[in-house]
Amino acid sequence: MKKYLILLIIASLACNCKSKSSINSNAKETNSNTHSENKSEDNTIYFKATGNEPFWELKIGKEQIIFTSLIKGNESTVFSTVKPSRAMDANLKTYNVKNEKSSAVISIQQIECQNSMSGLISPYKVSIEIKNNTDSNAQKIDGCGKYITDYRLHDIWVLEELNGYKVFISDFQKELPRIEIHAEENRFMGFGGCNSINGSLFFEKDLLRFNNITSTLMACPENNKEDQFVKALQSTTTYSIKDNRLTLSNPSGKLLIFKKVD
């Protein structure tokens, strides 16, 4: 009898250990999947918009356009991302998308837009006409949105090359030019090679501009290349990041190459 009880206790302990191990394993797997999904979303979603009455949310990514809402029949709809058509006389993009259940026309215009409930100001107005394939009429809704500036830009970058040539401290004054980019706030600050500089960022998918650049008014030596640096910065339209290097370019070619230092 004692031997039977001992065997029963051992079996029960083994079962409990296995159950706990399975739970911990499942929890780890769930956390890992959640982290992976969040990381994936951060890497792919580049535009977000919301609207009210009824509430809706739009996310545009490299592969998918995700629309969620309180609209009956369109609570959660996923479309494949397509290349938008562009207006000739305004910053207006239009996406025509469809899947097996519905279709939508999404228009994104660069114009100041105020959320009807929160009062928050966004730089883009978004209009959507969405229709189930079984319906005859489309639902028309409006809201506001913004592009999500590439988080990889958020860093301190020190200049290495200017207009195709390697730069040296002797080309400037005491130290090399640098920029510190604050991606969430779409602004930057730094040192131009002689004066302190700051300004704002204009970011859209595949587009980056450094705008409203201002600087202190310190007199600079004639051989200082700060003017060339600032002009190149103002001429930037695109960028790439690879091997801790930020390359700024325009249709004419590479303008500036920076090295990440923080």
From TrEMBL:
InterPro entries: DUF306_Meta_HslJ (IPR005184), HslJ-like_sf (IPR038670), Hsp_HslJ-like (IPR053147). Residues 155-258 form the DUF306 domain. This is Heat-shock protein. It comes from Flavobacterium hydrophilum.
